[in-house]
Amino acid sequence: MTTLGLVGVPSSVAAHWPGQEQAPAVLRAAGLVEQLRQTGHEVHDHGDRPVRRWAANPADGRPNNLDAVVEVLEDARAAVTAVIETGETPVVVGGECTLTIAVVSAFATAGQDVGLVYVDGGQDLQSPADHPHEPIADGMGVAHLLDLPGTAPALSGFGPRRPLLTADQICFFGYADDEEDVHGRVPSWRFPAASVAPDPAATAGLALAALTSVTSRFVVHLDVDVVNFMDLPAADVPQYRGLTLAQVMSAVTVMVRHPGCAGLVLTEFNPDHGEPDGSTARRLAEAVAAVFRPAPY
Predict the structure, then answer these.
(1) Is 296 helix (H, G, I), strand (E, B) or coil?
(2) Pairing between strand 189-191 and 170-173?
(3) Using the 8-state DSSP alphabet, how is residue 115 labeled?
(4) For the segment 4-27, what is each residue's pLDDT rounded down to a tens digit?
(5) CA-CA distance, 244 to 93, in Å (whole number)?
(6) Ramachandran region of residue 40, left (φ > 0), alpha (ψ -120 to 50) or beta?
(7) CATH number assigned to the domain comprising residue 273
(8) In whole angstroms, what is the distance from residue 77 CA to residue 83 CA?
């Protein structure tokens, strides 16, 4: 069994509004740690990083509150690097999608190359240049990982190399939002929700076969907005065309069980959108932990 290194990053500084900074504490209260331990894995709980809440701090040509976003990512990268260097598999609970920049950078800092399976309702390929009236870093994470034109240097240069990833090292999986590669710069593997829904597990296998032909190890980014909000009212920004929670977790289970899986990043849970009795958080915690159960023989 792998030792899971759990790190919480309670931040909403890169988001559209407050809320996500509550997620790690709420998932802990919903039993996430206990559920992970029940899978048979040893769990080393590294605790939560300092809480950082959203604030309006706009500047022309930059994502909102950019300095705070970078501070959160620097702190998260240091914490995740420490987990990686112990030989544990990081399970990082956010917080916003930008957190994956810190996680990929942490692997690079530790001298390890990883690809990325981006299980998300969108592709996060926006840039400040293309979206000056919605300067939210949360929707720009992959654009900065790829160092696309018009991105903010403080984020696109956030690592020991630039870019942190190339397009062939990324697989977009499960998105229901419109195509975001409007300039045709990102020739990555793409598996939209409509292609995933008929057989999520088999499609996950295809996605991993494609990605691991380029890179042997990968991180799974799991944004809860890949789930239709009517099925699980958890996402910070709802979408209503996506997959069910069962479909998403069927696919993610295949990904996590793959020998090349180097870690999992959970993002975009806003507890304010869930049921007030905590049932949404419990359902999410149980689903996330379940993907770590060993395959039956």
Answers:
(1) coil
(2) parallel
(3) E
(4) 999 999 999 999 999 999 999 999
(5) 21
(6) left
(7) 3.40.800.10
(8) 10
Helical ranges in 15-166 per DSSP H: 23-29, 32-37, 66-85, 99-109, 141-145, 153-156
At residue 159 the predicted structure's pLDDT band, cuts being 50, 70 and 90, is: very high
Question: Does any domain span residue 295?
Answer: no
Question: Biggest alpha carbon distance in the chain?
Answer: 56
Determine, yes or no, domain membership for 186. yes
DSSP state for residue 97 in the 8-state scheme: T
Q: Is residue 234 part of a domain?
A: yes
Tell me the residue type at 87.
G
DSSP-assigned letters across all residues of 150-219: T--HHHHT-SSSSSS--GGGEEEES--SPP--TTS----EEE-HHHHTT-HHHHHHHHHHHHTTT-S-EE
What DSSP character marks residue 91? Answer: E
| Number of domains forming the structure of the chain | 1
Beta-sheet pairing, 189-191 with 218-223:
unpaired
Residue whose structure tokens are 């309006």:
56
AA letter at 21 = E
Write the DSSP symbol of residue 269.
Answer: B
pTM of the predicted model as reported, rounded to 2 decimal places: 0.97
| Residue tagged 């494609």 (tokens) | 210
Domain span including residue 48: 3-290
Cβ of 199: how many Cβ atoms within 10 Å?
14
Chain mean pLDDT for the chain = 96
Chain-centroid distance of CA 243 in Å reads: 17
Distance CA 150, CA 127 (A): 6
Starting at the edge strand found earlier in the chain, the sheet holding 170-173 runs: 42-48, 3-9, 89-94, 261-267, 218-223, 115-119, 170-173, 189-191
CB 269 within 8 A of CB 224: yes
Give a yes or no: residue 296 inside a domain: no
In angstroms, rounded to a whole number, what is the distance separating the alpha carbons of residues 103 and 101?
Answer: 6
